[in-house]
Amino acid sequence: MLATQLPFEILFHIASFLPPKEKRIGSVVCRTWSQPFEESLWNPIDIKGNWQLWALCEKMSGSAESNRGYRQLIQELTLSAYSVSVAGICRLMEQRFPSIKSFCVEKDIWLCRYPPSVTDWRHWKSLKQLSFHIYGDKTTVPAFFSALSCLPALTQLKLTYDSFKDREPFCMDDLETLLTSTPHLKTLLLTAKMRDISQEDIARLRDLKPSNQLMCVSFEIPSWDLRWLYYWAIKAPNLSSLDWKLMKYPSDKKGHLDEATSLFGSLKNAFQKTECFKLNILDSPFSSHILDWLRHYDTPLKYLEYSTDGEADEPAIITDGKSERVLFSFGCLESIILRFINSSIELPVLLTTLGQCTLLVDLNLIAPELAIDIDSLLDSCRFLKKLQLDIKYLSVNPKISPNTIMHGLRFVELQNTSISSSFFGYLSERCRILRRLCLIRVAIQGTRQKSSGGLPIDMPFTHLDTLLMRSVELYALKSPSNFDRARMNLLSFIQLKDNDSTSNYRWQQTQLRDCCAPPPTRSPDWYHWYLSEETPSRPVFWKLNKSEARYTEGYFRSEWRMFMSVTSLLGGVRFWTPNVSKAYWKEDLLRGYAAIQIGSVEHFIIE
Hints:
The chain has 607 residues and is of the alpha/beta class. It has a domain at 443-606. It contains 15 helices and 27 strands. It has a 25-stranded mixed beta sheet that branches. A two-stranded antiparallel sheet has the order 12-13.
């Protein structure tokens, strides 16, 4: 079947899986199902200058005579090329692109520096999404608000506001004018220098006309006026998503906490439909108050993003009704993103907080200084389906019972962390329906077998759709109690092809530490890690051919034991530097290797 015979919805779905194109100086995106595939769906056209945009407009005009509805092709227009012929270009855009639904104007573009009145915005009655960057002078801002009132179909606006010296920061009156000009707006993304709410503004907050259509608000401002949160509680009663990006908290500001607390105390209902809340803060003492206000109104949050990049000793902690110290307490949460970049978090507080989120299915935790046991985390999050961790160390409790309850985890992604080889055995035993495992810049360490030189990484019950290993480092410990380690540059990989997940095999910590699973009948694939001369800062894995693989297997069956009889486990290879050529892979045999044995994998990606 030709692409032109497919419904547009199917083509749109297919296009969502296409890899993103490189950033272009300018682009026009065409979407349609009535034109040949090469001229329609997601077809980008570079616009690197004024003359190219002019030529494209002329081409569209000429094609319209012989191809009915050709101008309807252009539905997304992005301009990032500087031009001086403002009026002429704008007139061409009005005539040749009457049906665009998405219009993006990037920073430092001519249309941002000239009043929007040079364009007759009434031609774009179908425009639904607008991304604009304006410079706040006395001429441009009123003209922009007037232009917005000419767009009856506009539902999404992304506005970046730069104020000049002769223009005050964005204030509540400006925001009111903007929302009044866009009565059907559903999504607002605002980046601007905001002025604090004045006493006169507070006096008329209750008299403001609510924007009932507004569903999603994201604003990045350097103001720490907490009364802005109260403004959105009054202005957008149907708000479902709120994203507040706040700058570093100034020491000379009080944030108007007392006044904001008093205002919220007089408000009976707020944020009754808010399911998504993102709080990105930099070193603030007020984060606990913001979350406490949301909890006070029983906000039905399903998604929470909490980020703190400050230098405080720990994030703000609250005490719930059970006198337990927690970060927050929302029983409806299904997805959480937690970032503690330059601040620490007490592990008991974290586990208690996660334990109260009984519906949690998606957790993304970024805490570079945190060490945690995977068993404690899974016990606290019993219904977790997706786990992403960027922490210092992830371990397995050596005292854990072999009769641990099975877990329904399906997706695991680890970044910038260290794990032991026993982690894989525990994960395979407890999470039998795991389907995707991603290891990115992860250090795997454990004790090698003295007889074979292999570090066992066994996952006999795991049948993955995807196993991704990117920039993974392998280390051999001298002993379980001695953390002196040596780098290994060889990896063997084999699939056991045992799809019976109901086996009576019982995981034991000592079994995985001291011996590998029964040797499979198939020969493993062998990979070698080295530093490329072309990319000396990035490791490269390459696959050994059949003869090299046979040589490697023979070495570890015979010569490794001889080597171990005359030298220590680490020997003299501890301080070897990685080779910069794969031709010297035999020199890395003395380091030993990591042996991955897994039930099955559809896609194994090693980079």
